[in-house]
Fold these 2 entries.
Entry 1:
Amino acid sequence: MIENVGNDQVLLSKIATSNHHGENSEYFEGWKAYDRDPYHPTNNPNGVIQMGLAENQLCFDLINEWMMQNPQASICTHEGVHRFMDIAIFQDYHGLPEFRRAIAKFMGKVRDERVIFDPNRIVMSGGATGANETIIFCLANPGDVFLIPSPYYPAFYRDLGWRTGVNLVPIPCKSSNNFQITKEALESAYEDALKKDLKVKGLIITNPSNPLGTVLDKGTLRDLVTFINDKRIHLVCDEIYAATVFDPPRFTSVVEVIQDMPGIDRDLIHIIYSLSKDMGLPGFRVGIIYSYNDKVVIAARRMSSFSLVSSQTQHMLAALLSDDAFVNKFLGKSKERLSKRYHHFTGQLANVGIRCLRSNAGLYVWMNLQHLLKEATVEGELKLWKLIINQVKTNMSPGSSFHCSEPGWFRVCFANMDDDTLEKVVKSTPSPINKKRGQMELQLSFTGSDSLSISQLGSLILSPHSPSSESPLVKGRT
Amino acid sequence: MLSKMATGNGHGEESAYFDGWKAYANNPFHPINNPNGVIQMGLAENQLCFDVVKDWILKNPAASICTVEGVDSFQDIALFQDYHGLAEFRKAVARFMEKVRGDRVKFDPDRIVMSGGATGAHELVTFCLADPGDAFLVPAPYYPGFDRDLRWRTGLQIVPVQCHSSNNYEVTRSALEEAYERAQEANIRVKGVLITNPSNPLGTVMDKDTLTSILAFTQEKNIHLVCDEIYGATVFKQPSFISISEIMTNQDCNPDLIHVVYSLSKDLGFPGFRVGIVYSYNDDVVHCARKMSSFGLVSTQTQRLIASMLSDEEFVDRFLAESSQRLAARHSVFTGRLKQVGIPCLASNAGLFVWMDLRHLLKDPTVEAELALWHVIISEVKINVSAGSSFHCSEPGWFRVCIANMDDETMDVALRRIRALAAKKDMPNKAAGKRKCWQTNLQLRLSSRRLDDFMGIPQIGSPHSPMPQSPLVRAT
């Protein structure tokens, strides 16, 4: 007979007392530094600039303009309030039909109408965070594993594994081939997992990639689909950055690829989507699961009861995304502005010898600072990172928090600020740099502004007293 | 190919319950277009005060981020995804909860944690407090959705605490002890007790002694007490609502064991907005729950609207008063007319429903007879009500009837139909011929139902069906 042990009893669950929420990761340290000392152009010009948050702030003018022209999209305006009650009491987990239709149409447009999405397969969830957790709850049992190419989005550790009990097995990708996922790496990770008696239930990919900002080519996608089909495991494709592709090569969705692969079991194919990145609306918590497996659609829809999209938000977005003219304009402008940002930013970085992985999507760049490391280790990377936060006063995300196997890479977000703030980051304001010889740590002292800009960081690299003998200019990396 | 969770029945949707929803969905009442359709009285919604809300909405355009007055905030609100929630939202919800309790207690905004409706809140609390296989004691009859919300993805077990009409369903100390021992003997670790106060489906409030006794029980056993106070503002007459927070202030207890679940779905009538709240007196639970809330945050657009609305104290006072009044009037008319035709209801003073006693109309005091009667109500009387067995009520013959989800005219029609039902004194015999065919259907369904011997009562899943307008898709 079980007895509840008096005061010794652990009050909380195992899940609650574990660290699987992942917040002890370094990924969050930078955020804390920013929270303590946030940059503001007038109130705190020497604060920390946030470049660790993959937000898309570039197109709110278009949305605001549309809102003003379409008051009926809101249930709080004169034009829309007659719908208030119907919307406020609508809690059907199928979601508003017009919402599902609008989302399906939007997803089709993002893929240039090369594929059609069925509104009846659109399932809501609490942001992509909720969507990713829900799909795992549907596909895997506690103790099962999912393969995942690294580097990958840090919060997957929490989203995919915290309450589900499912673990991640990374497929390390290397800079030597631009972090592409190779068949060998895939097979090797799979076989290793089997040797450890782990039950592999699926593969999860993010395409376009976070943190790399690259897209998968058709060949690679076909290989991945063939792989999972052969192994009879699931393929979950997080396509949350689909509309952030701003330069060629164009985005190829897994949906497009399977259209030409009739032998594939579609019950294994699932897509995760959200409006948080493509449209810049993370606060609205619009997560979408789109599965080709009917049983998964049904199960996920039932589970969506735990985190439906607010009907107020569904109603507004249904109107917004049904407006073809708006959507076309938005997608076009968004691409344009992202491209401009990307080229301006990477151009400035290149001028001071800082290289990034060549990319064409996402809201960030994958910056290579390997040559600045004192030691090519995670510790070395984290030391450099703290320096960047404290001296350059910029928060960027260290590659190790993305489980990158090579130290020295950083993800730097460029779409979450206005033009002036970006300028501040890249401006070249000369400032004397003193370095004492023989010191273990690089120390910087300077007059004037008490923070460096990225360009000054670059000057550091070019200085003959730089700790590293190899400069990226010598390496000629793009 | 899928997880056990996805292929199992933990979603609770398989149920003989289907018929009521199918009947309604196939033939929904409409005063003009379909006056002979099925009237929906199985859905605990609060539709009585939308005029008051709409009036406020039009006078406060800045509450919306889509109006001229509010659009300047659009970007900031759209980008805000901090799981702490908007500070003004937390403050406003805390203040609202205080007002609902007549300002007899204070709520700390920093303990307010968001979740995906009360559905999400219950699951969230369970994930924080219990491991798979652990159990909560839950007084029965209870809301059918708990079977899914508390158990499906968490692996929790529910051990019902049987309550009886003979003493107005009081949750007695001995009933709690009995349930606790039953669990112990089955080697099940009890982690907590979950009460819903005001009660769904009973519509009653717990008195001070009962709450004190339940609290003492949990404290002695060192187990959690989760109080779902989702119907807090639906109390429309004396005795007044006493919340667990109030009981706590009057006695020594370990606050780490006490947690409140709340939502705006019933008190305000906004189930679509998915505003669930977890309020725990345990700091570790607040921190953990807040991290978990990432899976089900409230849309910031909605946070903003609610923050504005509920910070308007004058509006809140007016709303609470009107709501109370209108619920009282509805309740009085409905129970009065039922009484006239010899149908008693449990004496109640809260909730959006009444607990109707049709035991005298049952052929036998069995679940089968109850379901047979229910079929008659749906197909002949053309009203969808909820059978007591779906709430795990141990005594057949009780039905929950929702009274706040329709206008006065529809209520009139419903009452006329119920009067007709009451007139069928020999109805069970009259329906004998028809009953045979229902019985066949019924038997098919009963055999596919899970019978949980341990529980000692038939397990009927939550009243959910995959059809639009059905409770499968919404909380009842």
Entry 2:
Amino acid sequence: MGSSSACDGTLSLDEFNASAKALVTKWRGIDVDALPDWEWRPCRKMGVPSETEGFVALEGVYRIRAGSQIEESSDDPVPDDDVVGHDTSVQSSRDNVHLYDFHIVYSFSYKVPVLYFQGLQAGMHISEHYWIFTSSASFLIANVCNLSLGGQLLTLDEIKKDLPPHSLQLLNESKWTFITREEHPHLSRPWFTLHPCGTSDWMKLLLHKLGDKDRSLQYLPAWLSVAGQAVGLKIPLKLYCSS
Amino acid sequence: MTLLNLENPCYSCRFFADSPFYVRIVRYIPIGVLFDLLCADPERPWNLTVHFRGYPADILSPCEGEDSVKWNYNNSLKEAAFIITGNSKNVMNMSQADQLAMWESVRKGDLNSYMNISTKLKLGPFEEDFLVRTSSLGSRQGSDEPESPGSVKPCRVPVRLYVRRVQEDLEYLEDAIPVSDWESVSYINRPFEIRKEEGRRITTLEHALETLLPEFFGSKPTARAAGPEPAAATPDSAPDDSDTTPGTPRDREPASASPQEMDVAKRA
């Protein structure tokens, strides 16, 4: 059923597939520092990868929580413009690194994309880190090694710590209506998901200025600008520039 | 629909092993569906071994209490309502008392109480021409949006299938190798759209399955599927469904995909 996505904020499976592949291609073309690449994953039917159905996956996104115990070495950073200071300190921040996987899956029920995600408590050992100061900001770049992936799956309460403030507020108002647990359509396990029931309404608003052709290809990037925000994914603006 | 519930203050988990094979049973699935799916040779009582140690926290995140299961159920209901009527207003506008009563009826497996509340949701039956008129919801308190008069669309039936593959050339289902891994069960959550077709007066479950699972209805069907989602299975939502035995609670009825069993079911 290839109905036009147009006016009601929904999209068909074919449009989802096309938009997803366009997203993957465009993302790969821009230089996204802090995030890995989205990948198209065909779903398997009877053990054979399907040509018509699949989902988009972004896996291995780190959330390193600020405020982990850092032992400063004797080199004090000098607050001059563009000075790179090098501190070496050994730190184990086992409790402060979360590793996330995000999947965008098509919902036949709501005819919109749905974001599925899960987080792992990762064991991590930071061996070196660099302080970089500029005139406007200072930030820490951690050089990460020895990341072990045998961690435990995070509960919603643990994931809450990584969510942006407006999402936390929504969660506090009602714990299970904004983010819920659903069986992942392709992976036989319960994942967390952003409840999709308002999606077509706000997508209608986001897309109403676009022409038909642009509307279906731009659907996913537009959708991601909202859904990504809800889970703290920073989507680069370059995704929205015409190439 | 019944959910298996073990209240254990030390270790709130719903993880079971059915010896000699370990099966990670997903907690949101009604016990009847699990039983039909996993017990080819129906045993009563169904012997389960409950583990309180060695929780597989790397593949299953800890159970977050009855609330998460209740909301999973509510969200499924919302989804079913959305599929049938085009929006979830009737579920979202349920009074607090009704919501509580519905969940209690699900917890206790009390079909009568469940029916008292679910009929208020008006999730069917469909008209003769298989079209849903969205202005027929009736007045609901707190609904601010005006109903759009006269808008119609083809009706859709919510369907959830849990499909377990068995080896070929099987004469008796009881001889199937038991499920050893939940990953070998496929989950399909997809509504079926009822269209009026020439020469087809009623829509059967077989026709729905053929549409949703075309790969299983080739020359050699080898799959056995467990029944549709409870919201779709209530008697008032699919009156044209001709292949279940009258009087049997539908959500516990396995819908078999093999043509021989389908023929038997249709004759019933």
